[in-house]
Each structure stands twice: as C-alpha cells, then as structure tokens.
Amino acid sequence: MSDDSVIRVRGLTKTLQGQPVLRGVDLDVKAGEVMVILGGSGSGKSTLLRLMFGSIKPDEGAVNLLGTNICALCDEALDEARKRIGVLFQSGALFSSKTIRENVALPLREHTNLRPDVIDAIVKVKLEMVGLREHADKRPAELSGGMRKRAGFARAIALDPKILFCDEPSAGLDPVRSAELDRLIRTVSKNMGATCVVVTHEMDSAFTIADRLAMLDQGRIVAVRERAWFERLRDLPAEEARSLNEGEALVRQFLRGELDGPLSRRGDPEAFARDLFGVRARGASAG
Ligand SMILES: Nc1ncnc2c1ncn2[C@@H]1O[C@H](COP(=O)(O)OP(=O)(O)OP(=O)(O)O)[C@@H](O)[C@H]1O
Ligand SMILES: [Mg+2]
User: Fold this and answer.
1) Residue 81's domain spans which residues?
2) Is 286 within the bounds of a domain?
3) If pLDDT is split at 50, 70 and 90, which confidence band does 2 have?
4) How many domains does the chain have?
C-alpha cells in the first residue's frame, strides 16, 4: 500500500439471504488510528467488521490488511494473518467450557511457542488490565455480561495485535467500566501502536476514543471524517443545520438521537398495509 493505510476496503458488497447488506463500501484506516464505525441497528456494521477480518467473504470488492488481500487467502494463510489481528465480538464469543484464564491463554497456546509459565504471566497481565485477574478461574456463565465483554477484550489483545477489531465494546458495561475500556482502547492504539476499528452505539465512548469516525447507512458509508468534524456537526445550532445536505443532516440526527430527520422519513406505509391485509393502503392510487 502506498500511503499509511493498514486497512483498505474497496467496493465491498454483501447480500445475505437475498437482502443487500453492504452496497459498495470503501474505507481506509491509517496506522495507529482509532476508527469508529457508527450506524443504526441493522445498518451492516457487524457484517462490515466480519468482512474486514476475513470471517466471511464479500460478493464483490477487496479487503487489504497490512498489505495482504485477505479475501483471496486460503484458510491456512488466513489463520497465519489472524495472528496479527485481535477481535472482540459483539457477543464476547468465549468458550463456555473453559475458564477465563484458559480463554485468554488460547491464542497464545495456538499461535506462539511460549513456555506455559510465560503464557500464564501474560494472561495475568491482560486480565489485570481489564480488572478480571481475581476472576480468572471462573467460566463465562459465572460472569456478568460486562465481565464477559472485558474477558473477550483481554483475549483480543492477548497476542498484542497490530489490528484490533471491537464490536460494541461498551455495550452492557457500567459507566466506569465503559470509561476504563475506552481508556484501554486508546492505550492499545497510542502506546502499543495497534490500529483499532471499533463499532459502537455509545456516543460518549465514540467521541472519547475516535481519531476519525465513519457513518454507515443502508449499506453505504455516508461520511468518513475527523472527530472534530463530527463534533461540529453534533453541536451545530438548529438554524444553521437547515442548510445541511441530506447526508450531513442524517449524521447530525444520528449523533443527537433526534426523532425528526432524514432517518425517520423512511419506510413504506403501503408495504405495511399489504403485509397486514394483503391490500393497498387506503388512499393509494390504483394501478
Ligand atoms: N448471517 C446472517 N444471515 C442473514 N442475514 C444476516 C446475517 N447477519 C446479518 N444479517 C442481516 O444483515 C443486516 C445487518 O446486520 P448487522 O449485524 O451487520 O447489523 P449491525 O449494524 O451490526 O446492527 P446492530 O447495531 O444491531 O448490531 C441485518 O438486516 C441482518 O438481518
Ligand atoms: Mg452489530
């Protein structure tokens, strides 16, 4: 790659069960930055993330990670590439039969030749970072949802990844734990040099951790900008907001969580009537 992008997404499309989820996504993520992906529920954020770390393949387009087109890799090569990638799944995705200690040790056992006592020490450090060292011998079912999330984070950073993908890291965390995880993501990016891609709904968290943000809507990226641009848009007074274009108005509505705006003027009332009664909505023209 010519510039300082470590992730380059080009023309990604993905249809799932006949429904177009991504309709041509381009996105560059620079080395060491925290890129936050925003978007409504069902807008395709988790799908985009899964494509970015190669757990599913696109219908069209390419994902270049650290100079490699991961869409073209066989399973073995993909496994090798994944050594440099950490993933925190939306669900946490821990092995339920293993303790938290074993879950975090797993990538170290699978991908390194480190001695067991060294692995133990690394696991302790990672669990201490997320405040779970004292819960190391519990299984996922014996932890709260937020604790599982933090255990998933410890596992995602076990191998000191070059790229860290996080899907809704703060969901289910209390405000203090959420702030702690935000700080950890910044630390992983700024002190450990990892490039982070984070999907989140939590606006406070998004504005705390992001260097840049991207807004996904109906399978397309409608804005990729520096954090300051998003902050200005969020804080723009209503009278100035009237002159915004459709895309900017949409982002502003999302950031402010407002009821009125382009995101609310969607949907087809006729479709609902057809579904309910098998007829056209009253007042709709015949034809
Ligand atoms: N495995 C799958 N099979 C079929 N459809 C899927 C699958 N995964 C996701 N989808 C569909 O793709 C769309 C986007 O889903 P996705 O999980 O990417 O959304 P999201 O933006 O992450 O939402 P949320 O904020 O609720 O997590 C949804 O309409 C969903 O129903
Ligand atoms: Mg999701």
Assistant:
1) 5-277
2) no
3) very low
4) 1
